[in-house]
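Example record for the data management plan.
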Amino acid sequence: MRQGTRAGSLVVAFSVLGGASVAGAALIGPEWPAPGGTTYSATGEPGKTGGLTFSYTGFDPTQYSELYWGPWDGAPIGASLNGQEIDASEMMTFSTFSGNTAVWTGASTWSYFSGNTLYSDRPILTRMTVTTNPSSFVDASALGASVGVLAPVTGDYSANILFEANFFGNWLPIDVGYNMYQTLPGSGTGVSFNGGYYHTPVPLPGAVLLFGPGLLGLLRIRRRT
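Corresponding structural encoding:
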């Protein structure tokens, strides 16, 4: 998994009294690592009980104004239970979020035996749940991003990723449920998710003072980048 969105143009207003602002600053990203570096460790597996948990540390807040973590824009999110590469029909779409939990949903197919009867290519619902700690998710569209949700990064945090499938009305970790049934040789499960960082830049110095013949005072400058 790669550790691992845009808005309008950045306008910086310079004040003659000092200070600075990055009003309307566009998010930069996705990127890995975060500006200034990121340290991480991982435990677990995304398709098993408890999921996969990444723990992130080592941030340098002098390198950004605001920092967010979330799905890598443009990278596939999906799950397969048929032993094949995840295809377009198995891609998940963002569904909902509440607090520090966000959900993406999709579907795949699988083949299994019940007794001596083989049931081939049967549809099955899938979902991915991402839980962050301690940050809560925010609506990414409010930040100009199109990845569903983003989690503000204000210090060390963790993110848990769990893929599940609905086996006959029961949501189970995708590998756990799959291994409960007799399936075709050579088939199996696969999942895909990539996370990354998005940031707004550090404000530029704010005051510009001009001195010289013919200058009666201070000049207010407005720049567009």
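Summary line stored alongside the record: The two ends are 33 Å apart (CA to CA).
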